[in-house]
Each structure stands twice: as structure tokens, then as C-alpha cells.
Amino acid sequence: MVSSEPKGPANVAKTASPFKANKSPGKPANGQKFKPGGAGGAKKFDKSGAGGARKFDKSGSGGFRKFDKSGAAGDKRLGGNKFAEGNKFRGKPQTQPQAPAEGEKQDWNKFKKEKKDLKLKRKSAKDTYEISKEANQIHEKLRCRRTENKDKLVEQIYKVLNVGDTISKVVKAHDTARVIQSMLKYASPALRAEISEKLLPFTVDMCQSKYAQFCVQRMLKYGAPATKSKLVDSLYGHIVRLAGHNIGSGLLDTMYQSATPKQRTFMRQEFYGDLYRKAKDSNVKTLSDTYKEATNMKASILGSVKANLDHVANKQLVDSSLVHAVMLEYLRACDEDEEKLEETVTAFAALVPHMLSTKEGSEAGVICFYKSTPKNRRAIIKNIKEHLLKIATHEHGHVFLISLLNALDDTKATKKAIYDHLHGDLKALMSNQYGRRVIQWLVAPGDTTCFHPEFIRTVEEGLAFGKKEKELRRKEILEQIEAPIAQSIAEDAAFWLSNSHIGLVTGDILNHIQGESYEKAASALAQVVAQPEWRISADAAGPLPLDKKKPHNDVEAIIAEATKRRRKLLNVDSSSDDEDEEDDNDDEEVEKEQKEEAEDDAEPKLKKAKKEPKKPKAKEEEPATPLVSGIEEAGMHIVLKKILKNDGKREGTPFSQQLVQNLSSAVLKAWLGVNRACFVLLKLVEECPSLLEDCKKVLAAERSLSQLLAERKTPGAKLLAAKLDIGN
User: Fold this and answer.
1) What is the pLDDT of residues 350-377, one digit of tens each?
2) Residues 301-320 as b or e (16 or more Cβ within 10 Å = b)
3) pTM of the complete model
4) Torsion of CA 2, 3, 6, 12, to 10 degrees
């Protein structure tokens, strides 16, 4: 029986002893936890108990908060309608247009109007709505190309926006951000500087905004040098965070490239740790300066740099000059700590293709490859395969590729992984000044006539990380690639002698390949040179566009020049409009005359003739590259002499012999009238004495050729005549 006395802490002692004697059958005497009829201090799990116990039931009225759908008022209910009154999680009120009842037709015009009113109501609730609306109205006039005195309109917009912190609020919106961009573009220098000063405190947030980032770009493009310097200074303390931001990293890279050397140093210092994030040190130029006087700090500083680089690498945002510079400093500092170096190299192996866009990044990529394990080397080669053509034709990327070719021991894998992927793009490589260097290194590695000694010394540092001998490695590579290159030359020999720059590389190839490959390439090239109409491009780099001028930093001059161009376009448009008006007037006069004639003759009215459409103006064709005779061009003259110089050492049928065999009387007649062509023939007979008699026989057979050579007074003709004993 349950006790009717009030329960509480004071009565627990009284009621405890009787319940201890009550033991349920079949249960152990000790450790009984749940008593079927107990009413003491123990909490009961039943349906009808009353008192202090908190019960799990449906209709109890104790102090327990119940989980139900219809609890009494005042309870915090966790069920039912979440939009009910009194629930703080009920969300926004339902203000959407109501759907029609069943059987009723939807009035779409009314629905669209309600949606539009709702959108307008939501916009008007913002405190900057009226200001933004007024600014946008003025901006519509400002952005029109026919508008004059745009700086006055900018002043009007600035008066509207220059209220409190309005500019900082509207700069991140998609519509008003465009207004700010136009203001920075068309404002007077003084007003542009004032607007920039207003925006400088919010630069960090703007660099991370989807729309405000374009305002920062306008400040960099049109701002004065002082504004650009302040823009960089405003980022101090947030460099690492911006380097790891998807939007901010690009702007940070642009600012780093345009910053002063001192500012670049301060930007790099923030990667060295939190100490330099808050305060800058002018004496610290590189990473090694941070622990020069306190060597015990080296481990902690390198750890901070590694953590920051890993953060950027995880975001895959390493295509930045700033990150490349810090990366290079870190790899040089970790030269002794192989464990940290291997961790970093492993993390950056997949990102090496993105590091080759700058000089520092290319050097860092080379170090990563040199210090990598065989597994990481294979990973790097695998990652650059799909970017090989871009890397080979890049200013800094081709250095990494040449260093890689010079350090790999497995020459068969080198050909398979690198050259085979580039072979299909040989013409693209030969058309690029950096691509030609890659081809030259493959056929003539370490040749001082092709490469600067300092470049050769830098590349050959990688030989220390290989096991195979230098000469053996280079010989194996040449043996594997000479046949495919010779085949390419034979298929389109005219391209390989299309200008002097390509011709120089072709000459190097011809001087290094041997055997059948040489004869196949030499035969094809000799046929091209011996053609009567052999023409090459005079300007190997290609003509520059006529309107392309050197960029200058005078912002006002840029704007003035653009304004002049617009006015010219407007004048052309207005003149065409006037012509249209005159045509319309003429048509009206013709129509009047036709009406009068119709009235007189009582004939039916004639229809107005359709106006003939104006013929579109022919587009100005770009000037074609001028072509000159190949034998007369100075650069190609050097190429031919370079090829003929090594012909005396050749076995079989050299280039000079094949050239003599392909020369016709008409070609010889044309060549004897050109000074440089006479020097080529002179070089030919000097380097190959066996051809001297052949040349004499050819000239003796053609009497007119001997007379022509004797009549010529050019230095080349005189020397050639003396060599062939003509005119003596």
C-alpha cells in the first residue's frame, strides 16, 4: 500500500526501512533497483502515480513538460504547426500569392502583379532603396556613350551616395556596384581619389565580394599611384586569408605584381607567422632572415609557413606570384630537413602545372622534381601530360620542362611520356620562341651556340639528382627522337624553312641527326631551297597590329584617347543618319511627283520602290606578312652557311650534293645575280671540294651562266668566279 504521507527529503528515512524488507520472488536480495509498488524517494515508471515523481504519460498534470500536440497553454510545444502563434521558430509569415481553389482558373496577370508588388515591397524595406534608385537613374545617363560632361554626372551621384556609410552598403550590391565602377572610371582625378579614400577601409571585404571585387579592379586600373599604394597597405593583416579565398586570391596576385619591393616583402612576411602579421620588420627581406639571429626559432617559423602553404594548396589556389615566391623561399630553407621537404613536395605534386606561370614558381617546381621520390616524380609527370604544349610554349614553363628532360634517367619513359605527346604539335612548338628551345635541347643539349652558358649551368644542376652519365643519357634521347623529327621535316620541308628563326633550329637538327634520318631530311630541304619561287616570311615574329601601341600609365590620357575614338564613331554614325534622312527626303519627293502624275493621268498609284539595302562596309583586311626570296634573306643566308659548314664531315649524300643535283639552269641564273646566293655557292665548293669540278662542268655547259658570272661586280660573284677560274 502506498503511503499517504507527503513525500519529501525529510520523510525519506521514515519510508525507506519498510520497503527494504519487501523482496520480489525470484530476484536476488542484493542490488534490486526497481520496486513494483514502492513510493519512497525512488522515481516510479507507471501510468497512474501522483506526487513528486515526473511521469512519462499522456494525461498527467505534474511538472513534466509533455511531448504532445495539444498541450496546455504556456507549454513550449515541440509539435504541431510550426507557424502557430507564440512559436519563435515559426518562420516568416505566409505572404506569397495564394493558389486558386479547385476548378478556378489562374489569373496569371494578377499573379505576376502580386509577385512584382511583393518584390518591390521587400526592396523598399531597405534603408538604401531610395538612394540606390536615384543613383541608378543618373547612372543610366552616365553609361550612355553619347553623354558628354560625364564628370558632372559623377559628382551628382556622389552627392546622392555620400550620406553616412551608404557607399559601404551599396558597393556590394549587384546594381550599385556597377554605379561605383562607372564613377571610378569617369570621375575627375580629385573626385576619384576621394571616392577611393571612402572605399579603402572596406578593401578586404570588397576583395571577397562577388560584385565589389570589380570596384577594386577599377581602383587599380584608374587610380593614381598613391591610391594603388594605399590599396596594398590596406590589406596588411589579411594577406594569408585572401590568398586562400577564391575571389580574393586573383586580386591579391594583381596587387603583388604592381606593388613596390618593400610592399612585396611585407606581404610575404605574413606567411612567416602571426608575429609578422601584426607588425612588419624592414630588416627581414627573405625567410632565412627571420631565424638568422635566433636559430631556435627556425622550426616554429618553418612550421607556420608550411601550415599557410598547405592551407592555400588545399584550396588549389597556388597560381599566384606571391605564393610562388614564398614556396621557393620555403623549399630553399628546408634543404636540410628532408622529412618536411618530402611532405611539402607530396602536397604540391598535383599542383606543379599551376606553379609554372612565374619565374619563382618554375624554380620551385624544378626543386620539387629534383628532391622528389620516384613515386612523386611519376605523379608530377602524370599531372603535366595534359598541359605539355602550354608548358613548352610558356616563358617560364619551358625551363621546367628542359630541366625535367635533363634529369630523368629512364630515357624510354621520357620519350613515351613527353616527346610522344609533343610530336603531334611540332609545328606549334616551332612557331613559338620558347617551344623552339625545347626542341633545340632535345637535339643539341648544352650547345653554347644555342643556349646561354648561365642557362646551361642552371639546368645542369639537376645532373646531381640522376645516376646515368650525362652524355649517355643525351645520346639515348637523340637516337629515339631523330627518326620522328626527320619524318616531320620530310612531310613539310617548306614549313621548316618558312622563316629564319625556324630555319636556325632546322639547321641545328640537320647538324646533329645521323644516317638515314639525315639523308631523308636533307633531301626534302634541298628540294625546297632549289625551287625558283622559294619565298619566306620577312618578319618571323609576324606583323604587329597597326593600332597596338605601348601601354602607358597615364590614366587621364587613356580616358582622353578612348573619348576621341568614341567621338569619331559618333561622327560616323551621325553622318550615316544624315544620309538616311536625305534618302528619305528624296523618296518623299519622288512619291509626291508620282501622286501628281497619277492625278493628271487618272492612273492607279504606283507603289513606292523598296529602298535598296546598304552594302556592308568591307572589313579592313589585316596586312599579310611580307614575303621575300629565301636566298636573299639575311637570316636564312646564315642558316644555309651553317648547314653547309658541317657537310664535309658527312658520309653518304650530304645536303650540298643534293642541292647541286636539284639546281636547275634557271635557278642558277637567278642566284648568280644575287650577292648572298654567290656566297652560298662559294661556301658550298669550299666545304665540299668534290663538288668543285661538278660546278665547273655545269657552268661550262651553260655558256650564258659563265658570261653572267663574269659580268657581275658584286663581292660574292667576284670570289666565286675566282674560285671557279672564270674570267681569268
Assistant:
1) 888 889 999 999 999 999 898 888 888 8
2) bbebbbebbeebbeeebbbb
3) 0.70
4) -100
